[in-house]
Amino acid sequence: HKRIGILTSGGDCAGLNAVIRAVTHRAVGTYGWDVMGIYRATQGLMSRPVQAIELDLDKVDSILTKGGTMLGTTNKGNPFAFPMPDGTFHDCSEDIIEGYRQLGLDALIGIGGDGSLAILRKIAQQGNLNFVAIPKTIDNDVGITERSIGFDTAVNIATEALDRLHFTAASHDRVMILEVMGRDAGHIAISAGIAGGADVILIPEIPYTLDNVCRKIQEHQAQGRNFSLVVVSEAVCTEQGETVTWSDRFGECRLGGIGQYLADRLSTCTGAETRVTVLGHTQRGGIPSPLDRLIASAFGVAAVDLIADEKYDHMVTWQQRQVVYVPIQEALGHYQAVDPQGTLVKTARGLQICLGD
Ligand code: F6P
Q: What UniProt keywords apply to this chain's record, in alphabetical order (predicted)?
């Protein structure tokens, strides 16, 4: 008999509740273990009393299709230098380790992106905790896994947005620019761009010139097709290589604005009317796609099986149609950018989509 904890950390995405449900089914339903759902990532473990809820099959009965995470999450504050109300920073790692012990856990499952999983692993090593990792991020750039939870839903949402923009672009003879998420990588942009029939796709992995993009739109105009669809990843820089950011009220630099930058320049060089849609967090919310539900369910069951085998410090990954267990250190060491020579880029070029280069 084991008692395990589960927490969701970093930005939310569709499919997190599906993992929580799968973990609970496997652990409680199959093995008869206890599962403690920890609130708001490591913050639940550093709070006193520890903030957690015992999960059972009833509590996870209707969450499969729900967006967000029933446990809450946060990507504010590194626990090794956690911002305190008085403006100082405190190393909370020992509080988190103590929280794990107070809950009487035998193992912890952490669902996160590369940043939060690396932090959780460091804490687990420091406290000698039994830790297993599940990758999630709409950006799909984490570790060795071919898929992370949330990516497919985000691509679906971005593709649907393009489908909608297509008709309004055509009706108004406009150049529609869709700015999609992806903090460092262009996976959402290239995938949704191809699936949604974009004319131009700009990703941070491929440098572009405005001249090339203008030429593509002007070619369309010369052929009598007076509208174009442009997809741009938020991580794309200006032509001069500057990141377009704005500061939020915490003084943090956020990505955003490259869509408007392009709109201004493209309307000048093509004479077309331009409009920008920034999809933002709609890509993270909502009902998970069937594929995300499947991956989340497979990852949840497999993570519990790892614990049953007492095979800790591993991450579940998706490789060649199945779950493969990989040591976390090894798994996180593979940052996944879009491969400029890969199939999707070749496909886009084969479809005469302008990639800006
Ligand atoms: O990493 C996921 C992600 O949604 C990125 O695509 C985006 O740049 C970032 O998180 C936004 O973070 P926040 O929710 O803090 O605004």
A: ATP-binding, Cytoplasm, Glycolysis, Kinase, Magnesium, Metal-binding, Nucleotide-binding, Transferase
Q: Is 271 helix (H, G, I), strand (E, B) or coil?
A: coil
pLDDT in tens, 18-41: 999 999 999 999 999 999 999 999
pLDDT digits (tens, 9 = 90+) for 71-90: 999 877 789 998 888 889 99
139 is catalytic: yes
pLDDT < 50 positions in the chain:
none
- Tokens 């590369």 — which residue? 114
Q: What is the SS3 assignment for 265? A: helix
Residue 78 C-alpha to ligand 1 middle, in angstroms? 16
C-alpha of residue 79 to centroid of ligand 1, in Å:
19
Q: What pTM value is reported for the model?
A: 0.95
CB-neighbour burial class of residue 357 (10 A; exposed 0-12, middle 13-18, buried 19+): exposed
Count H helices, E strands: the chain? 11, 15
Q: Give the atom of ligand 1 at the shortest distance from the alpha carbon of 181.
A: 6
DSSP collapsed to 3 states, 124-191: HHHHCCCEEEEEECCCCCCCCCCCCECHHHHHHHHHHHHHHHHHHHHHHCEEEEEEECCCCCCHHHHH
Instruction: Ligand 1: list residues with CB < 6 Å.
Output: 11, 75, 113, 137-139, 181-183, 234, 254-255, 284
The residue written with tokens 């089914």 in the block is 25
